Amino acid sequence: MNGLEIAKIVYNVLDDRKGEDIVLLDVREMSPISDYILIVTGNSDPHIKALFAGVERELKNSGLHCHRKAGVSVGGWMILDYFDIIIHIFSAESRAYYTIEEIWAEAPRVPLQ
Predict the structure, then answer these.
(1) What is the model's pLDDT at position 107?
(2) What is the structure's pLDDT at 86?
(3) Total number of domains in the chain
(4) pLDDT in tens, 74-83
(5) Could you tell me if residue 79 is inside a domain?
(6) In a domain, 112, yes or no
């Protein structure tokens, strides 16, 4: 399964669980670390935790295992790294502070709907 196929699964999980402002960036031409970066906002600590757990569970059910994961919901930022795609789950405040989209401003946005 490639990064874009994983992103579509992740998008469906996040959308079903009411993740907000889901953005997929194609960083293949800019980063040796990953092909895609997916960013989503959760509206509370429990919501961020539920988004994280839902993505991890669905991808595990698809036969994929997370390479690295970090963060805590109360910190406002959790990350799942699946090599081909890195998933950032933010609180609104943390997303505004870290401005990942600005850091990767040159990266094309990939429509997922």
Answers:
(1) 97
(2) 97
(3) 1
(4) 789 999 999 9
(5) yes
(6) no
